Amino acid sequence: MTNDNDAVETADDTLQDETELAHDEHDEVDPIVLPMVRLAVTAVSDVKAEDIRVIDVEGRCSYCDLLVVCTGKADRHVRAIAGNLVAEHKRLRGKPPLGVEGLAGGRWVLVDLGDVLVHIFDESSRGYYDIDGLWLDAREVGMDELGLAPDGSLPRDEDGAASS
Q1: N-to-C CA span, the chain
Q2: 153 pLDDT higher than 60
Q3: Could you report the per-residue pLDDT of 112-141, keeping only the tens digit for each?
Q4: Closest Cα partner for 119 from 79, 67, 73?
């Protein structure tokens, strides 16, 4: 005879196994999304965004596959980071991002690149909204996996030139 606790433990074990399988299936960035996330990370890095993190939410989120989260030092810096990202997207893709929200305020700017969403915060807003904490159990994508330097910039060759 089984009791309710055994049924709950079995359900929890099954859920944990499915979650682990979901993590294993997404241990690499989708090659179709890779150029867009590289564009986003290098564009924010070029303007000295801090604490750049890429969070893999594929299969966990219906509206995107990757989140890029970074911090600017002040509202003007946040706007400059977002402005550079929008300009680089236009230059390389020939069109503006799907959407940009919060640019006027400069505390939290959201740039929608389709499968990649970029959150650019000032320091206090990043802590307050805690996007990092909301996705604590999601896989963080390393800069090396994106083919980038640890600061999110393009790697440099021996002569100091950025490679693509």
Answers
A1: 63
A2: yes
A3: 999 999 999 999 999 999 999 999 999 999
A4: 67
Residues in the chain: 164
Rounded to whole angstroms, the Cα distance separating 161 from 164 reads 10
pLDDT digits (tens, 9 = 90+) for 29-76: 888 899 999 999 999 999 999 999 999 999 888 899 999 999 999 999
Residue with the bigger pLDDT between 7 and 21: it is 7
pTM of the entire predicted model: 0.80
Residue type, 121: F
For residue 121, give the 3-state DSSP assignment. Answer: strand
Q: Return the percent helix, strand and coil in the chain, to nearest 5.
A: 40, 20, 35
- Look up residue 34 and give its two tokens: 């890779």
Cβ burial 39-59 (10 Å sphere, 16+ → b, else e)? bbbbbbbbbebbebbbbbbbe
Contact 111, 117 (CB under 8 A): yes
Cβ atoms of residues 114 and 96 within 8 Å: no
Residue 31 CA, chain-centre distance (Å), reads 15
Token match 């909204």: residue? 129
d(CA 111, CA 88): 12
